[in-house]
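Narrative of accomplishments. A recurring question from our advisory board has been how the design workflow behaves on a single, concrete structure rather than in aggregate. To address it, we present the structure tokens for one chain from the evaluation set, followed by the sequence designed for it. No filtering or post-editing was applied between the two.
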């Protein structure tokens, strides 16, 4: 059989392993703004982190002080109303926030949670989240999960040839 230059090469490594394709454009826009805000605050952020419960958090942030925050992104009123899993995330963080964009009314989100408004270019914390500190064993387990997931994603991106800037280790 002769080689055909039009024959695609099948690779077990996706073109960009850092993109999973499950989020809507609007949710990604909110995520970009929130990630920028958290980065400016000095936090390391991982999107779509699987938790020990099997749930997947939209964003998990590890602050410079070692705090663990979860941000649940809601792209519409319907998205919020159909979600009954968000209370489960509180067991995996010190602070829990909702994040959305200006077209979703802030009044629908519980006062007992933090609230972040994002326009895709940046974001602002409009309501701080109350703190409920994780137990030391839970903190250690989640910090290890965060580190291992981040390292695995970095390795997958490197194997796929995705150019990544080296972060400041500070």
């Amino acid at each position: 059989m002769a080689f055909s230059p039009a024959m695609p090469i099948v690779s077990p490594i996706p073109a960009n392993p850092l993109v999973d394709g499950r989020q809507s454009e609007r949710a990604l826009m909110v995520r970009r703004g929130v990630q920028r805000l958290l980065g400016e605050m000095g936090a390391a952020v991982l999107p779509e982190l699987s938790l020990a419960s099997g749930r997947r958090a939209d964003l998990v942030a590890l602050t410079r002080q070692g705090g663990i925050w979860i941000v649940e992104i809601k792209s519409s009123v319907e998205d919020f109303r159909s979600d009954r899993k968000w209370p489960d995330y509180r067991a995996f963080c010190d602070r829990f926030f909702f994040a959305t964009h200006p077209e979703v009314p802030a009044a629908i989100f519980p006062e007992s949670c933090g609230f972040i408004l994002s326009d895709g270019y940046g974001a602002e914390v409009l309501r701080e989240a109350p703190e409920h500190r994780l137990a030391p064993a839970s903190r250690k387990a989640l910090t290890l999960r965060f580190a291992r997931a981040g390292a695995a994603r970095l390795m997958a991106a490197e194997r796929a040839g995705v150019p990544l800037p080296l972060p400041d280790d500070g």
